[in-house]
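pls ignore typos typing on phone
fructose -6-phosphate + seq
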Amino acid sequence: MQVIIFDNAQHVAENAAEWVAELINKKSKPVIGLATGSTPISLYQELVNKHKAGQLSFSNTTSFNLDEYLGIDEKNEQSYRHFMNHNLFDHVDIDKSNTFLPTCNQGENPRKQGLAYEDKISQAGGVDLQILGIGANGHIGFNEPTSSLASRTRIKTLTQQTLEDNSRLFSENEFQPTLAVTMGIATILDARYVLLMATGKNKAKSVNNMITGPLSAACPASALQLHENTIVLLDQEAASELADKEYYIWANKQNQKIHQEFGLYHNY
Ligand code: F6R
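k done
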């Protein structure tokens, strides 16, 4: 894992935008895996700014989101489809027919829907760069603790902690879904590059567990230890419980020289 620590959350977003922009400019048909939640909102803002400045076009980009709630319509403001339209798709030149979220409507077979989503990703050529956040409990996507490290796209029940963490986004009498369709951990590990962003003190523990803790379903993000090209972008607060912080700061200085010479995707 390449761990990069920034002064603040805005610098995390700016660097994440560099990774996305370089990938999109490098590939003729880039495929990006997208996340929702509070963390990537400032990344999407940066991407919109780059697009508006004429530096970035999404016209050839295909996207696959990590997850979507079950039991609410995509027109509902709480749906992740709505989130993506509102924060990114409506403001850039992406063809919305090339943007996908995993869904499973009433009456549909969840297993078939999950496999169909995996097929769609394969047909697009696989995910080049997967954007991730991390839950305070170490989840990635909605792969809650004890999710199989070999899991594929399927329905998951959200934990009480995740429901509480996300309740801030729902008003008092609003329906808060307890189920979601999510890419599995194995699905995420298939991406060629993974870019995980974490900001804020409440992520510090899960960040340390992910990077230095045992590889364990108790911290689903620790599965990224098995991934060849994972980049972790942290602000100071999210890095505050990281063992061996000085090593990452030093290593990143060396990495910057490699990036300058060979580009961010020198291992592609
Ligand atoms: C979002 C997702 C989740 C979030 C995580 C962090 O699509 O899959 O894993 O990335 O819950 O959420 P925030 O960024 O709101 O702290």
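The chain has a mean pLDDT of 96. The CA atoms of residues 212 and 243 lie 7 Å apart. more later
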